[in-house]
Specification:
By secondary structure, the protein is mostly helical. Helix content is about 75%, strand content about 0%.
Amino acid sequence: LALAPNYAEAWAALGKIWTAESNQDKAREAYEKALAANPACFIAVVRLAQMDLAKGRDEEVLQITHRAMEFEPVNPWVYFYSAVADVHLRRREEGEKTLRQAIAADMAHEIPPAEHLLGTLLDKKGDTQGAIEHLKKYLELAPHAGDAGQVQTRIDVLEQSLKIK
């Protein structure tokens, strides 16, 4: 960094090191410098979003992720963290839309919680069939998740409600 102070990926790597060392203040500073050098540095966006979500700073998450969404292609984690912040802020429609974007962008299926959260939102919305579909996809992607039993129970209840109608 002494030789290339605007090398975003180096700042992001330094942020990862400081995160691993539990130095959150230094990590945040490094990620912010990475974004200053390159606003499309998705590693920095994702890490800052994680840090802000952990501290309940949902508005900050939305600011960071929405700026990052201006660049293509968008990292699916950017959409996911933006959707989580929307849901925390009770902006369910925005959260649903952004979760669908996260799922579409997640070609490697690395974010099973996106399926779970979308299924939960659809359940609350009254879209039983959609909820079942996404909750089943979650279990398909994360069969050994700690909440797999609870999710399967919810699927069973939803499927039973369809039979009653």
